[in-house]
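user: can you give me the structure for this one chain? tokens are fine.
assistant: on it. calling the predictor now.
[tool input]
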Amino acid sequence: MTTVLIAGVPRSGTTWVGQALGHSDGAVYVNEPDGDHDPFAYRARLGHLVAPVLRPGDLAPDWERLWAGSFAGGRYARTVRDRIARAIYARTPIEQRWEAWLGGRESAGLRLSSALAVPRVAAPDARHVVVKSVRSELAIEWIVDRFQPRVLVVERHPFNVLASWIELDFVRDGREAMAVARYAQERFGVEPPRPDDSQLVHQAYYFGVLATGLREATDRHPEWTTMSHEELCVDSPARFEALATGLGLEWGEAARRFLDASNEEGRGYDTRRRTEAQPDRWRDRLDPQQIATIRATLARFPSPLLPD
């Protein structure tokens, strides 16, 4: 079985890429098993704040079970216990989940769903498993060391990513950026924003921590594949077919149909987009002051995150 991990910061195009590659012949696509909407992931992320930091060799039993089930095919267990846990979790407001992840109060519903939650299980018919994550930036080497998937890192121009974060109101709570402050100080020597800095400064800082952590891990592993969202938007059918082949997947008619169908207007979290319009989309979404703020914030990080 071929296993592929697709990683990137949120809003970098990983869902589009993951769904396209997940339509390869014989492939099963597992979307964000470590994300916000899975009760076992909620449980695994407790105590790790918003971006789990794990290094090869670290002990993390719940993460071990989470990723083992994901790379086996990532199917819901569908036992009575699993169904109850998911039903309770689905009724908990997302704000309650973030409050708990940030070290605040945990509601009774979250405690119950967490206690009942079970990891995903194998998909016996899968020849390939494609797993997509936007929460693994600071733990990716732990995942790869333990499970040995092929890795695809998707990058996107920071202006495009942050324009989307602005529109979707990411990093609403200043504690989100502060949750990675210690990591940023120890690894990059970058101080966190001041509490009274603008939301965009907090957003750009948080992006910078995740993107730099992922970039440094990628630089240590030349065997990983790195692709920019902007590259994939140009001559998408040919580039995706070559990418799938390089990752050991079987590009076929279902994947071609998905790619064609996704090439239309979409909004918000919808993955449909006119691909030719994506690379420079930030030019119509950010004003000069926003661009200057992002540049100044990202310039503090050691990796050159902004293209020349």
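assistant: here you go. The CA atoms of residues 9 and 207 lie 7 Å apart. The chain is about 45% helix and 10% strand.
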